[in-house]
TrEMBL record:
Residues 112-240 form the Dihydrodipicolinate reductase C-terminal domain. The lineage of its organism: Bacteria, Bacillati, Actinomycetota, Actinomycetes, Micrococcales. Pfam families: DapB_C, DapB_N. One of its GO terms (biological process) is diaminopimelate biosynthetic process. GO terms for cellular component: cytosol. This is 4-hydroxy-tetrahydrodipicolinate reductase.
């Protein structure tokens, strides 16, 4: 039997963290060697012999958690949001001092959501208008979601490469921000509603037609396929990988 991957989970008491603990425990090729909650000593990751850290904590803690892992040569699979261009650049500087260490920053671990982001990027150059609506449970700490922000960045870059003009919009007055956040020229709208888990749609429009690319996660177990893929793949990809699609052979 192949040697098991030794994994530590940070954020064990959260909805995602507790689900990851179960998934890793059930995976035949993995061994859960540590599961930490808020306030636990990160040194336990090192003493447990963990080869991979899965960070599913909160934006205020994730940067320090990943820095600690990289400084100790431990690979990291990160689903916590809060990583912008500046913090990603800082992460790359840490990785320069630990060139054999891999870090995956994944805005979303659901395979369907990753595909929806890619499909949105592919379609963006062919439509005059594009907007994004993301819908989550009311306990979510950030808005817009990391998935929506990443989708907007991909869409905006695709439209810029294709020379597509900004989406038409005659709005002159919006004192209450009803048009949503403007991310790289793409309007993003955040909904927080009891009963939801994680949902997103990219709306693309031309005269006489509309394309909707939508993904729905009804249960957090939908994210575990991506978490396990990240754990199995991160050691093979030294440096920073932004997005689970970096580990998927999409043939695109």
């Amino acid at each position: 039997m192949n040697e098991q991957i030794k994994v530590a989970v940070l954020g064990r008491n959260g909805r995602m963290g507790s689900e990851a603990v179960r998934a890793i425990t059930d995976a035949s090729d993995m061994e859960l060697v540590a599961a930490l909650g808020r306030g636990d000593d990160l040194q336990e990751i090192v003493s447990s012999g963990a080869q991979v850290v899965v960070d599913l904590t909160v934006p205020g803690a994730t940067r320090e958690n990943v820095r600690f892992a990289v400084e100790h040569g431990i690979h990291a699979v990160v689903g916590t949001t809060g990583w912008d261009d500046a913090t990603l650049a800082e992460l790359e500087s840490w990785l320069a001092d630990s060139p054999d260490t891999g870090v995956l920053i994944a805005p979303n671990f659901a395979v369907g959501a990753v595909l929806a982001m890619k499909f949105s990027e592919m379609a963006a150059a062919f439509f005059e208008s594009v907007e994004i609506v993301e819908l989550h449970h009311p306990q979510k700490l950030d808005a817009p979601s990391g998935t929506a922000a990443r989708t907007a960045a991909l869409v905006a870059a695709a439209r810029e490469r294709a020379g597509v003009a900004p989406s038409p919009d005659a709005t002159e007055s919006d004192p209450h921000g009803a048009r949503g956040a403007d991310l790289d020229g793409v309007h993003v709208h955040s909904v927080r509603l009891r009963g939801l888990v994680a949902h997103q749609e990219t709306l693309l429009g031309n005269t006489g037609e509309q394309l909707t690319v939508r993904h729905d996660s009804f249960d957090r177990v939908s994210f575990m396929t991506g978490v396990l893929l990240g754990v199995r793949s991160v050691a093979k990809h030294p440096g920073l990988t932004h997005g689970l699609d970096g580990y998927m052979d999409l043939g695109l």
